[in-house]
Each structure stands twice: as C-alpha cells, then as structure tokens.
C-alpha cells in the first residue's frame, strides 16, 4: 500500500464516520496526507486528520480520533491504529499491505515517483546563461547541474517546462572579447580590460584560419570579424561542454535578436502604456520605485543607447508573450541586487511578481585539493572551468556534488573525496546500491531465482524489521520528488537517496538474504525479497535520473 493509497483509506474512513454521526461532510477535505512518524516505534504512518477536522465539526479531537481509529481498523491492510497525544492517529500496516509496494514500484518502473502535482503550469526555466566571452566557470557549472535537475523534477511532476540559455552577444563585454582576440592575433599584449588565458590565443588562431584576410582589414572591420567569428566559436565550445555534461537546452536565445527584431522598443511602448515611464535629463526611465525598488532604472540613455536592463525587460516580455506563465531565472551570488529591480519590472508590466516571476540565487562553489583551493586552469587562467571540473572528478560525481546541496549555500568540493571509491563518497555510496541491486538480480537469475509473475508474489512474507524499513523508505519517493519540485530543491532527492534508500538497503542486505545458500531450495521468501531488491533498483535509478546521474549495473 502506497502512502497515497493509505491516505485515501483514511479519508474513506472519515466519510463513514461523518455519515454515521450526521456530521457535515462538506467539512471533509478533498484529500489528505499521511506521514512517517519521527519515531518508527510509533507506527508506519501518522495522520492528523482528526485534529484538522475537530473545530470544523465541534467534536473533541480525541473523540473524533477514536471514531476514526475504530473505522480505520476495519480497513483491509491496516494492522492497528493507536491514538496519541491530542488526537494523532498512528497507523500500522500488515505485512501484505506494506509489501505490495514492491510490486507497485517494479510494475511502474520509470513512472514511479512521477505525478501531476504541477500539471497545467507552463514554466520557462533559464539557467547558466554565461556570456560567450569565456568558458562556463565553476559557478555556472553549479547552475548547469541544479537547473537541469530542476527541469527534470518539474517535468516529473507534470509541469510544461521550457529550458532556456540566454547569451549576450551584444554590448561592452563582447567588444572587450573581440579586442582581446584581435590583440592576440596581432601578437600584442592583452588589452587592460580584456580577456586573458590560452583559449583567447586558440580562438584567435581559429578565426585567422577561417578568415585568412582578417588582419589585412582596418581595425574596426577586423574587430567586427573577430567578434562575429569569435563569439560563434566560443559559444560552440560552451554548448559542446554543456552537452558533454548532459545538459541540453530547448532554446538558445540570442540577445542580439531582441535588438534586431525591435523588441526593446516594443517593451518600452508597453511600459509607457502602463504609465510607468518618464523622461529626465534626456534619458528614459522606468519608475520601479513604485514597486519597491531602491531607485528608478534607466532604459535608454541620453545618447540613445539601450541599457542592459532594457534588454532584461524585453526578454521577460518575450517569454511572457510566448505563453510562459511563470518565468524562473537562476542567477549567481553576485546578482542579489537584481531581485528588487526584476520584481518591480514584472509589476510595471502588470504582472504579479509572486506568481509570474521567480528568481533563484546560487552561492559560490570552491574546489579544493588536499584542503587548498584549486584556482588555476590549464586553458582559462584563474578560472576553474566546466572542463577542468569534469576532468577532476567526472560527470556523475560533478553533477551529484553540485546538486546535493541547497543552492543558496556556499559549498566546498574536495576532489580527493569525490574521486574516492569508498562509502564516504556520497555518489559512490548511492551508485554502489544501484550496482549491487543489479548484481543481486543477475546472480539470482544464474541460480534460477526469478521474481515470477505478480500473482505469485507473496508480500506478506516481507515482515522483517529491515524489510519494513526499506519499504517505508521507498514509499517516500513520490512525495520527495513533489516537494523537491515545488520548493525548487533538487538536493532533497540526493539526500533522500543517500540517507533513506541507500542506508536502508544496506541494512536490509546485511540482515535479509535474497539469494539461496548452497543447495538451499528457492522459496517464496527469496522471490519476495528479490521483488524488494528490484524495487530498490527502480527507485535508485529513477532518483539518479532526476539528478542527471547514471545508475551503473556494475562498479
């Protein structure tokens, strides 16, 4: 019995009690939840339904709990119900009801854990968005891992998600990049405000190979050639490194298109219609202070140039015009100042910032080796890049390590720890269970132990304490996925896999033998435990998939 099925049983019991007592059934909720009690000795699950309904119907909570307990005790699969405190219901399932979960999970396969909790929500999720002036650095890599995991979680809970990478190929940073490439091609020193690193010389050489005549052009034309060709080459490299990291975007949005299509003027006109623009000192301003910003923002300078914030406004409007109801943007730790102005901008367009815009701020990542920071890159100077990080610990470890922590907390990643093939390496600990469960299934097949069809499955045999513990851990998965998606916290999945599933499976494996010993005859208990083993493999694989991490069959 899954927690959702038990919740339905509890609610059905409440309907019966209300009918018997002539209570107003309109007070009953459409659904309820059951939770695991903090102390396993209190039962398998707990419900607070009696406490929730007591005031609504004027019945003391313990009296209502007693009636619910009596009715619930008659339900199939419920072993016992105890009343605790002011009216908590502590519920124990019989072994057959609890063990049926193994069959449910195996039969659901990749669908186990998915739900329609966020069905109907159309979300645009923008993350990474590094400028094509250099590689994706370690901070951007964190958003690559977290953002991709979040997109998987949102889709797993029914949301319609469009992932997006916004790249700035216009503005002063691109000019500095082009000047750096031109200087490298000429053999001149890097401009004072330019970009350094061996990658600049590599790209400059590639541009010269593509455009042999480039250095015969005047400086303005040559710089433009290096801008166009250099940005294309750098962005190709960024896309390749992200693809190798397992991250693909539905849309790669070019900032220059906003300018070329006149979308900045469109946004300006829309804001003017809303009555939030004014002119001062020859510039066009957006009155964001009306909506809590610390100062008004310039959209167009007195010399006619657009500001970066004007492009932000146009880009937000473009997303909303494409039908996205919620715009989620992931930004680095240095972007806290954007929160106020972006929320005010959404309000200026007539949107509800709490409903239509969501900004997530990620904190810094420090890469350590032997306790000392790793600062130098082979190609990129002082920046630790995505390719450096992957080279150091591998894709799986990198993705897991970055998604394992709440994104609003700084993290230190120790290279030695994350490359170690021991249980203190979190990704190894979880992937080891994936491999062990696959190994058990292989070895079972070799001795003629197969699960058999569902009708022959004897769930009531799974009555060992460690079997029950593992079943309860596996039952939590759908709720963990839904909560992680709603709170935008992929780390909940990683911690659940480690602390609940992997830990419980190891205890189950140590105490409950799945395979027959020697000439021992295969029994229904062996088959039942194989179902449980395979259900664990399913949950581990599904959870790791949500994090973009592989579930190996061998290690």
How would you characterize this protein structure?
The protein has 21 helices and 14 strands. Strand 12 and strand 13 form a beta hairpin. The longest helix is centred in the middle third of the chain and has 26 residues.
Calculate Rg over CA atoms.
29 Å
The count of β-strands is 14
Strand arrangement in the largest pleated sheet: 6-5-4-10-11
Integer average pLDDT:
91
Terminal CA distance reads 33 Å
Uncertain residue segments: none
Task: State the shape.
Answer: flat
Main β-sheet description: 5 strands, parallel
Fraction of residues in helices?
40-55%
- Percent strand equals 5-15%
Number of helices: 21
Structural class: alpha/beta
Keywords:
555 residues, alpha/beta, 5-stranded parallel sheet, 21 helices, 14 strands, 12% strand
Give me a quick take on this structure:
By secondary structure, the chain is of the alpha/beta class. It has helices at residues 3-21, 49-57, 61-72, 95-108, 138-156, 172-186, 198-210, 219-244, 255-260, 263-273, 308-321, 338-348, 353-356, 386-393, 395-403, 415-418, 426-446, 465-475, 477-487, 491-511, 524-546; strands at 45-47, 78-84, 88-93, 122-126, 160-167, 251-254, 277-280, 283-286, 297-300, 326-331, 357-361, 365-369, 372-373, 411-414.
Present the secondary structure layout.
Blueprint: H1 3-21, E1 45-47, H2 49-57, H3 61-72, E2 78-84, E3 88-93, H4 95-108, E4 122-126, H5 138-156, E5 160-167, H6 172-186, H7 198-210, H8 219-244, E6 251-254, H9 255-260, H10 263-273, E7 277-280, E8 283-286, E9 297-300, H11 308-321, E10 326-331, H12 338-348, H13 353-356, E11 357-361, E12 365-369, E13 372-373, H14 386-393, H15 395-403, E14 411-414, H16 415-418, H17 426-446, H18 465-475, H19 477-487, H20 491-511, H21 524-546
Parallel strand pairs: 4-5, 4-10, 5-6, 10-11, 12-14
Antiparallel strand pairs: 1-3, 2-3, 7-8, 8-9, 12-13
